[in-house]
Amino acid sequence: MAESRTIGVFGAGWVGLVTGGCFAELGHEVIVRDVMQDRIEALHAGQLPFHEANLPEVLERNRDRIRYTLDPHDLADTDALFICVQTPPTYSGDADLSFVWSALDDLPRAERRQVLVMKSTVPVGTGEKVRAALEGRGLTNLGYVSNPEFLAEGSAVRDFLNPDRIVIGAFADEDGAAVEALYGGLEAPVVRTDVASAEMIKLAANAFLMTRISFINEIANVCEAVGADVVEVARGVGLDHRLGPHFLRAGIGYGGSCFPKDSLALKQLASNSGYHFQLLAAVIEVNELQKRRVVQKLQKHLGKLRGKKIALLGLAFKAGTDDMREAPSLVLASRLLAEGAEVRAWDPVARPGELMKGAVLSDSVADAVRDADAAVIVTEWDELRGLATQEVRDSMARPLIIDGRNLLDPAETRAAGFAYEGIGRPSSPFESLPETAEPETKVSG
Ligand code: UDX
Q1: Read out DSSP for 122-181?
Q2: Is pTM, for the whole model, over 0.85?
Q3: Burial code of 100-137, b = ≥16 C-beta within 10 A, e = fewer?
Q4: Across the strands, what pairs with 119?
Q5: Which residue is closest in CA terms to ligand 1's atom 16?
Q6: Is the CB of 262 under 6 A from ligand 1?
Q7: pLDDT for position 110
Q8: Between the CA atoms of 246, 249, 254 and 256, what dihedral angle is there, to the nearest 10 degrees?
Q9: 317 close to ligand 1 (CB < 6 Angstrom)
Q10: 20: which residues sit within 8 A by CB, 6+ positions away?
Q11: How far is it, in rounded angstroms, from Cα 381 to Cα 107?
Q12: How far apart are the C-alpha atoms of 287 and 90, rounded to whole Å?
């Protein structure tokens, strides 16, 4: 167990509440501050503004150690101040740091030495700029540490409490040591480094994960052309200890609140310094194309999509969350609508609202697939594992399943009477579907 300290958290969003809740779980006193009055009131009433597994329990269990406030002066008497505000992309693709700067404007003046800890994902060089700004304001009793988060939605509490590593970049050793001590009790390698390198570790780790996804998606596309199965290929590749099995699931591209924005921010960061990050640019482009490939697959089987009924099953960017930020389902729906298709959409938790204008939301999978010309699995929800039933087949106008997540077993699905196509897997002969006319061969002479 860590020696109990008092921790201030700027930002009662997803990162801030997970960070605050987990530090309280480690035995610290936590004060979370946000500028939104309704959010603070909701938290006082025990309501969370989003869904995250295990977080309600953690906050409830440590209720006596967590306070929520609007007033930054309540954070004056803390040992560490964590910045956990959003850094969305600007029009140019750079990270928008205005929330970070306004949190810094609100920093309380403390009597004793405090450490300012950056959890938000920021461009490399931010620490240096913040340090200069703080010195300019005479806040010399405030250390600065970069301590990026590596939390994935749906497993954030587990990721925080069982980290692969804790990255701590500091200008002064004593500040790094103070932050390291806050994590006492967690078993993980600690990477103590300089601030710029810590900032880069976060961006590079994300970029590498995205590179793996775009890489396996391209391998999948080649598999389709040559008759191999990417699921088998990924299994064989992933057993190489130098490569490992993670992030090798081919599909319809990555989405979410982090990957798309962080890859753009790193690409822009490099460009702003005069470097063209070719590989990352390709990773981003491959991901954009991957989202659209499902449309081509549908056209291959159905011809023109005008008037065709397409069921999109799963809307969240991944299973286990209601988050639709940068979800491939959004691109898919608008491409299908632009082709003149009728789109019916189902998700167990995500509610797209205006984001999916023109699509009809269905309450159940059965409603979505009724009379449909095709069902597309967009999110790997467990509920969809049992999709290939006789009931579903009989209710569809054409029994065609495009499996954007390779969730179903191809042989079983075909045996159940469906035409099935996954991503990067050999496709079925589609006997039941109309044949595309072959070009007439010219007989010369
Ligand atoms: C990610 C990182 O994992 C996390 O460390 C970082 O802090 C924030 O971004 P998250 O966006 O919550 O977390 O989701 P993650 O589970 O990493 O998946 C990201 C996207 O990649 C999803 O759209 C997912 O479907 C896709 N993905 C993931 C694949 O397409 N294939 C894979 O093999 C893995």
Answers
A1: --TTHHHHHHHHHHHTT-TTEEEEE----PPTTSHHHHHHS-S-EEEEESSHHHHHHHHH
A2: yes
A3: beebbeebbebeeebbbbbbbbbbbebbeebbeebeee
A4: none
A5: 152
A6: no
A7: 84
A8: -60
A9: yes
A10: 7, 9, 12, 30, 32, 66, 82, 84
A11: 43
A12: 20
Tell me, what amino acid is at 239?
L
Q: Is 258 designated active site?
A: yes
Q: pLDDT above 90 covers what percent of the chain?
A: 89
Q: CB within 8 A of 351, min separation 6: which ones?
A: 322, 361
Strands 66-69 and 142-146: unpaired
What radius of gyration do the chain's Cα atoms show? 25
Residue 263 pLDDT level (bands cut at 50, 70, 90): very high
Q: How many whole angstroms separate alpha carbon 161 and alpha carbon 24?
A: 11
Task: Please give the distance, rounded to the nearest whole angstrom, from the Cα atom of residue 152 to the centre of ligand 1.
Answer: 7
Question: Which of 209, 233, 243, 286 is the pocket-test mutation for ligand 1 (most atoms within 8 Å of CB)?
Answer: 209
For 94-121, write each residue's pLDDT tens digit: 889 999 999 999 998 888 899 999 999 9
Q: Which of 15, 19, 230, 254 to mutate to test the pocket of ligand 1 (most atoms within 8 A of CB)?
A: 254
Which residues, 6+ apart, have CB-to-CB distance to 315 below 8 Å?
Answer: 324, 327, 329, 345, 346, 347, 350, 352, 356, 378, 379
| Confidence label for 435 from pLDDT (cuts 50, 70 and 90) | low
Ligand 1 midpoint to CA 259 (Å): 7
Q: In the predicted model, what is the mean pLDDT of residues 351-364?
A: 94
pLDDT digits (tens, 9 = 90+) for 171-223: 999 999 999 999 998 999 999 999 999 999 999 999 999 999 999 999 999 99
Q: How confident is the model at residue 444 (pLDDT cuts 50, 70, 90)?
A: low
Domains and CATH numbers, the chain: 6-193 (3.40.50.720), 197-445 (3.40.50.720)
pLDDT for 431: 46
Note the pLDDT of residue 51.
86
Residue 428: helix, strand or coil by DSSP? coil
Exposure string for 380-400, b = 16+ CB within 10 A, e = fewer:
bbeebeebbeeebbeebebbb
Nearest CA to ligand 1 atom 7: 150
Mean pLDDT for the chain? 94
**pLDDT at residue 432, rounded to an integer:** 47
Judged by phi (left if over 0) then psi (alpha if -120 to 50, else beta), residue 18 lies in: alpha
